[in-house]
From TrEMBL, chains A, B:
It is found in: Cytoplasm. It catalyses: GMP + ATP = GDP + ADP. One of its GO terms (cellular component) is cytosol. GO terms for molecular function: ATP binding; GMP kinase activity. The lineage of its organism: Bacteria, Bacillati, Bacillota, Bacilli, Bacillales. Keywords: ATP-binding, Cytoplasm, Kinase, Nucleotide-binding, Transferase. This is Guanylate kinase. The gene is gmk. ATP binds at residues 13-20. Essential for recycling GMP and indirectly, cGMP. InterPro entries: GK/Ca_channel_bsu (IPR008145), Guanylate_kin-like_dom (IPR008144), Guanylate_kinase (IPR017665), Guanylate_kinase_CS (IPR020590), P-loop_NTPase (IPR027417). The keyword Nucleotide-binding applies. Its EC number is 2.7.4.8. Belongs to the guanylate kinase family.
Amino acid sequence: MIDEKGILFVLSGPSGVGKGTVRKSLFDRATDLKYSISMTTRSIREGEKEGTDYFYKTKQEFEDLIKKNRLLEYAEYVGNYYGTPRDYVEETLDHGKDVFLEIEVQGALQVKENFPQGVFIFLFPPSLEELKNRIINRGTESEELVKNRLIAAKTEIEMMDAYDYVVVNDEIETAVQKIQSIVQSEHCKRERVAKQYKKALEADFS
Amino acid sequence: MIDEKGILFVLSGPSGVGKGTVRKSLFDRATDLKYSISMTTRSIREGEKEGTDYFYKTKQEFEDLIKKNRLLEYAEYVGNYYGTPRDYVEETLDHGKDVFLEIEVQGALQVKENFPQGVFIFLFPPSLEELKNRIINRGTESEELVKNRLIAAKTEIEMMDAYDYVVVNDEIETAVQKIQSIVQSEHCKRERVAKQYKKALEADFS
C-alpha cells in the first residue's frame, strides 16, 4: 500500500557495554535491516570483498569524500581512515530498506550532526560493576587502563541526551528484542506515515 | 533498577476499523497492560461487579466529577453518562502499570486534551473498500447509513494528525504485534528513562 523510505538506526553506547554482541545477535535473527558497510583506506585482506566487508579507497579518495561531506562520520585509526559513506546509506534508504549502524559514541554524535533524521539508540550498562567486569574480561588490561576506560564511559554516558532511546543491556535477548520493537514502532510513527496513508485512502474515496 | 511510572496508551480510530477486535486480541495474550475501567451512571446489571466492569455512580456524582475535571473524557449515551475516571488511570500509572484505553476518535481527542502525556495510537483501515465491508458486515445497516458512516470515517481519519502512531489493521495479529512494539519502545524513550538511569549509575560511581 505504502512506498515507504527506510530508516537509519544507530546503535551506540560506552565501550565495554556490549554493542558488538548485541548487533551480532540482532543480525543472527531474521531481520530486514541492512548493515551499514564502512569505507576504509586500509588494504583489502585475503577473503574480504569490496562492498561486502568494506568499500576500499585510497587516502586521496577518502580525503576528497571528507571535503565533499560524503561521510556521515569518520575517524583515523592506526594510520588508516574508517568511515560511513553517506551515499551507500542514502541509496539503501531510498530503496525502502532500513540501515543499521553500530558505532562508538563519538562517531554516533558525528552521524547525528550529519543525519539528524536517524534514530539513535543508546545501549546502557546494567550497572557500573558489570561494565567494569566486561572491560576487565576483554583482555589483560592494567588497573590504570580499566580506571581510565571507566572515566571515559562516564563521559560517554553523559552523551546519552543526544539519543532517542535507551536500552539496558542486562540480557542480550531482551536488549535485542527491544531494539526490534524500536525498529517496528518507528515505522508506525504518525509523522512518517500519515501523509502517505491519507493519500492512499483519498484515492479510494475519489 | 528503575522505579518507572506507567504509560497511558490510547487506541482509537474510525468506527468499523476493528478497534474492539484488536483490543480483545491484545488482552488475550499475556500482557502487563491494565485495561482502563470506565465510569457510568447506568444501573449495575446481574453478573457485573463494581470496579471490574464499571465504576457505578449516580448522575449527581458523575456531574460533580465532570465539574471537578476528574474525567479524562465522557459522553452521554441513551440517557446515561460514560467516562474515563482520571483517578483510576493516575493511580494505576503511579503503581508502575501501563493503562490501555480503547475509545472512539472524539473521546480520544478529549483524553489528549486532558492527558497529553498519553501515547495515542490510530488504527487505520487497510482500504476504504475494506472499511465499507466491515461497516456493512456489522449488521443490517441501510445504504444511507453506511454512506453516512463512511463520511464520518473520513472526518475521523482527518483527526489522525493528533496521534503519535498509526497502525494499519490489515491483519489482526500484525496490528497487535505492532501495538506491543509501540508499548515496549515507548518504555525505552530517552526522555522517559535517561534521568533515572543516570542517577542509578551515579550512585554506583560515588
